[in-house]
């Protein structure tokens, strides 16, 4: 257990540990995006079917190329957030990590509300909730980690 503890960010507070956790999960999601279309298709599930019909086939617009692009984008965000987990007092790193969540939130919400490439469900709820809660948490803790 001591070996595991030594790998955790040493900065006080739960936010650095949260950033680490989200980064590790995102790295796993990136690998999944390269290995299978399924996880990315759950996020980008396609437009909602008419209420009277259940979808019989996937309406997801995900292609192998778009899944790999999503995986690469997710990996890049994970690296930035991983760095922020260990350097939360660095103002520029904190701001860039915050920006990754803002960009992710804007992306997922616009794909849902504007472009209609997805619909609300388990696949979309996870990324939206993580981005939303991380944005609020980082905003509230801004002064604690990087000052005013």
TrEMBL record:
The keyword Nuclease is assigned to this record: no
Molecular function in Gene Ontology: protein-macromolecule adaptor activity
InterPro entries per record: Erg28
Q: What is this protein called?
A: Erg28-like protein
Record's Pfam families? Erg28 (PF03694)
Biological process according to GO = sterol biosynthetic process
Question: Which keywords does this chain's UniProt record carry?
Answer: Endoplasmic reticulum, Lipid biosynthesis, Lipid metabolism, Membrane, Signal, Steroid biosynthesis, Steroid metabolism, Sterol biosynthesis, Sterol metabolism, Transmembrane, Transmembrane helix
Q: Where in the cell is it found?
A: Endoplasmic reticulum membrane
* Major location category of this protein: endoplasmic reticulum
Q: Which family does it belong to?
A: Belongs to the ERG28 family.
Q: Does the keyword Transcription apply?
A: no
Q: Name one GO cellular component term.
A: endoplasmic reticulum membrane
What is the membrane topology here?
Multi-pass membrane protein
- So which residues are the signal peptide here? 1-30
């Amino acid at each position: 257990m001591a070996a595991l503890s030594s790998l955790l960010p040493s900065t006080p507070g739960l936010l650095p540990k949260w950033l680490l956790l989200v980064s590790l999960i995102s790295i796993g999601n990136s690998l999944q995006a390269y290995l299978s279309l399924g996880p990315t298709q759950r996020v980008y599930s396609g437009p909602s079917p008419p209420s009277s019909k259940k979808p019989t086939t996937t309406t997801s617009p995900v292609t192998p190329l778009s899944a790999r692009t999503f995986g690469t984008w997710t990996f890049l965000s994970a690296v930035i957030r991983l760095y922020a987990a260990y350097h939360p007092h660095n103002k520029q790193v904190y701001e860039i990590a915050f920006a990754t969540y803002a960009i992710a939130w804007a992306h997922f919400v616009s794909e849902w509300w504007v472009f209609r490439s997805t619909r609300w469900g388990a696949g979309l709820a996870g990324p939206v909730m993580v981005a939303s809660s991380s944005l609020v948490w980082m905003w509230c803790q801004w002064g604690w980690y990087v000052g005013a």
